[in-house]
UniProtKB/TrEMBL annotation:
Binding site for Na(+): 94, 97
UniProt protein name: Fluoride-specific ion channel FluC
One Gene Ontology term from the biological process aspect of the record: cellular detoxification of fluoride
Pfam family, one: CRCB
GO function term, MF aspect, one: fluoride channel activity
Family label: Belongs to the fluoride channel Fluc/FEX (TC 1.A.43) family.
Gene that encodes it: fluC
Keyword Ion transport (UniProt): yes
Amino acid sequence: MSSTPLPVDPDEPAVPSPSTPSVLAAIALGGGLGALARAGVAELLPHPSDGLDVATLVTNVVGSMLLGALMVLVVEHRHGHPLLRPFVGVGVLGGFTTFSTYAVHARGLLADHPVLALAELIGGVVLCLVSVGVGVGLMRLWGEE
């Protein structure tokens, strides 16, 4: 058996973890706020049932960018209150973004608009991945100043 210590999880907080009830409350409050924000975007950017779901695409891309930035802030720079990640990351951004709505909408397009459905599915995932990278990059640039 090796005496070499196991690597420390980089997500392990620098300060003691908040109590479970406070984490759950932060997630619940953040999730409600994120879902309300998503509903607001959906009202501002309505879409036809047989067209591109712009509102869900916008929320997922913006949410992915913000999540990338948040992870740099809390994991690499160790900034913020211990409840910041559960409140903003899991709660607000988890409630704001939605993969299920995105998938259900694309499935509904498959019968009559298969090319649009595939473009929405593939394009959305690619845009979200790029958006995470943009958020990470911007936060790292901001952190160097």
